[in-house]
């Protein structure tokens, strides 16, 4: 794959992150590659421990090192490799070109500073605006994410906001410097469904107006179906399937994706007598993978799965899968 | 079928103390007049957003709190006013499965002793009999007997929840309150635990109060569903009626907010109703209907009179003026 001019805002190649723990190494991210196109919303799904968050935090060096160590890979933000830039440059990128929204809005806001101060901080740091201009920009941002009487609320502290409001503040902060890429790590998981619906509306609206690329991490397939353009499915620290949203839901090729789609009950349609389950537990990532990570839980497992780790192969336009089974290529068996 | 659990006008208010003398200045009305009954062998789902009082309600039904007012009858025994000391003897019939399997298991006890603890408390079985019972329970919930002497941290989240379920089953209870038993688990593990709960219900004839914020999972497991908002049950109906034709505007909004895991259907099957604003504080609920501050179909009367929780159609209960003939045709005034 050529560097630079591919039209992608973000390109990640063979990223590998390892944690050193007392009990040995944990290979949390194994050869993850993906790209984000301008204005696109890329959904990343997977269970906890599948490496979704660690992948995204590795991109901009947010993991404490030690214990974390990014062993290999390239992270190209508009052609510039973020794993090889100086710490000073990385600080410019974080919050500037790459915005981050974290899962828990309570713990990611500083309780001893006002919300206004926290929003103005990146604006002044990255855009070099004065206090007064930064203040105006902060008001503008809070209005953008739908916080009523924004000007008065700048001097409030995080605890004076409700959960949904705090998440809006987080979004405002992430948007402060017009990022090229916004990484949202389970931004609605800690929120109630009615508040989640509000946040999803805001994000859809902001995308239409600002046109930045978004990487949206979640384990909720319902959310993904509603907002994503393209989806990455992660399992055991690897990308097992990647496809645009419609093919992924209508014609999933990886046994894990298929099983995942069958296990979730819905609020409409026929109600199954019994829920489908994926037997067993997610793998423990003690060493670099030498075989398919899903083999112990896979209904279609055969000899080759125990011997080799499948590479991602293109099976349809823009659709790739890491699976040896013939049904992954032909698409039969995905008719459910 | 007769009701196993009957709850009438249950109230659980937590006092707020303030000032130098810590005088009582108000109360958080976590549960404010809740009435429902659960038939034998039935699962009643209790859903609502965080802070609506569903967990408090579940705990109050088992008298883990001293309730403010109301009547609770479990298996013919009125327990609402029984002092805590005497309740102990009644506990074997009613058990609880907690939300966080990490926090509800003592990290210094082995799995065997955790499951045997209720037996130590309430029975005089011999050591050998207890060991036999524990092994039987572990089989029942799908845990390997060989793990008897392991500690909770050696298990995964789903397995820990199985330990909690085994402990709840130890005394052959008839009624189990499941307080968000799957909220802390991954999707693929959630289905395993829900299936286990259903199997146990079928084989042991258990009655569940299943508390959850996950509407799709409740649709799967519950026979009837109660929707709570700000300390009150706003709607109670058989599962299919509630999901197909919700009567209360809050239920409607809640259902429409659940994202559909199908991109083709997203935003088509149901008009998405996005509620504005946040849930008011239970310490200071609005006048009239609790939902009037966010209701898309609010009428003048809603801001004055609190709607009564009553049967609006056979088997379907709702607390909403929209289903009261007296206020029909008043029209929305938003």
From TrEMBL, chain A:
The keyword Membrane applies. It is a peripheral membrane protein. Gene3D superfamilies: P-loop containing nucleotide triphosphate hydrolases. GO terms for molecular function: ATP binding; ATP hydrolysis activity. Its main location: membrane. Transmembrane segments: none annotated. It is found in: Cell inner membrane. It comes from the Bacteria. Keywords: ATP-binding, Cell membrane, Membrane, Nucleotide-binding, Transport. Residues 10-261 form the ABC transporter domain. One of its GO terms (cellular component) is plasma membrane. The keyword Lipid metabolism does not apply. It holds the Pfam family ABC_tran. GO terms for biological process: peptide transport; transmembrane transport. Belongs to the ABC transporter superfamily. This is Stage 0 sporulation protein KD. It comes from Jannaschia rubra. The lineage of its organism: Bacteria, Pseudomonadati, Pseudomonadota, Alphaproteobacteria, Rhodobacterales. The gene is oppD_1.
UniProtKB/TrEMBL annotation, chain B:
Pfam families: ABC_tran, oligo_HPY. Keywords: ATP-binding, Nucleotide-binding, Transport. Belongs to the ABC transporter superfamily. It is found in: Cell inner membrane. The keyword Lipid metabolism does not apply. It comes from Jannaschia rubra. One of its GO terms (biological process) is peptide transport. It is a peripheral membrane protein. NCBIfam families: oligo_HPY (TIGR01727), PRK11308.1 (NF008453). One of its GO terms (cellular component) is plasma membrane. Residues 5-255 form the ABC transporter domain. This is Stage 0 sporulation protein KE. GO terms for molecular function: ATP binding; ATP hydrolysis activity. Signal peptide: none annotated.
